[in-house]
Amino acid sequence: MPSMTLSRDDVIVGVDTHKDQHVAVLLDGLGGRLADLVIPATATGYAKLLAFCLEILQSPGRLVAFGVEGTGSYGRGLAGFLRKRGYEVREVSRPPRSGVRRHAGKSDTIDAEHAARQVAAGVVTAIPKTADGAVEALRLLKAARDTAVKAQSATMITLKATLVTADDELRGALEPLTDHRLIEACAALECVGAPTTPTKAMLHVLASLARRWLSLHDEVKSLGWHLKQQTKTAAPRLVEAVGIGPDTAAEMLLAAGDNNDRIRSESAFAKLCGVSPIPASSGKTHRHRLNRGGNRQANAALYRTVIVRMRWHQPTIDYVDRRTAEGLTKREIIRCLKRYVAREVYRLLPPPSAPENIDAATAVLPPQAA
């Protein structure tokens, strides 16, 4: 959206989003500041902002676009509200602290004006995720499963750390057991009466931690089953690729979003995943450096896929042998392979209209515990 295509009558809106309220600044097509407005982060507030913008707008001007910060968090409601009414929404990053923010200062109004100017200058081109389909359902399931897995690991660590301080008889009986047998044995412990002594408290705490672990284990199993089924439904070709399981496939889908047509090319997808090499050449030195940006969760998922293929995928094994003979290190080879896998994943992504919410009447139910 180059600024030369705008006229003075056009209006561009920048919004700095927060949990309870949003701050908007309106600019004309030549960069002049028209007005600012503070609205509550509710549907009523969104409607108030839109009505205010239309009131400011004068014929033959256009309400060109809205630059919104945090379209995946605090700005999600506003972005969806505007998109459903046919207005163009652009995702704007916060001003860099070492540059714009240090010189211009920091306030909600300043940040909103910065967002509007980024849109007017054509610098901001990122289209927000719609977050209204099967991929959004996967995000919620994966977030719940990941936190449950972390809590389960923390519970096991706490239980073992607690067991170290138990009396020698109890510790000697429980410590040699495998993890699952340890959990079962601790869950069966009984504390008679209130845990008023160290011995009783030890039995009570070990049993409590074991029951917590078992509850989290069932939760992780259930969420994992749903995640696997819905990933297969959303992207059947992706989960069939070598080294790409449900977790990795889900991470790739989350990076692309429900409206994955917002990613213009496989090169853009590679940059989104942080696997595109960054030129770092000067004079007679020609080289590329590691890209430390992008979606780091997607980057880690690509890394896991590459490690699996280096062990079990014969074409990848042959590639590693050839590049090693050419003098590349293992780390450099892995970086090359991550770029190749990103290209393959992009071609296996489902079309934007394919992922759909599973209908409740036809949904497959998880197996019941015995």
Automatic annotation (TrEMBL):
A GO BP annotation: DNA transposition
GO MF term list: DNA binding; transposase activity
Domain of life according to the entry: Bacteria
Domain Transposase IS110-like N-terminal: 13-164
InterPro entries in alphabetical order: Transp_IS110-like_N, Transpos_IS110, Transposase_20
Residues in Transposase IS116/IS110/IS902 C-terminal domain copies: 238-318
A Pfam family that the UniProt record links to this protein: DEDD_Tnp_IS110
Name of the protein in question: Transposase
Organism: Parafrankia colletiae
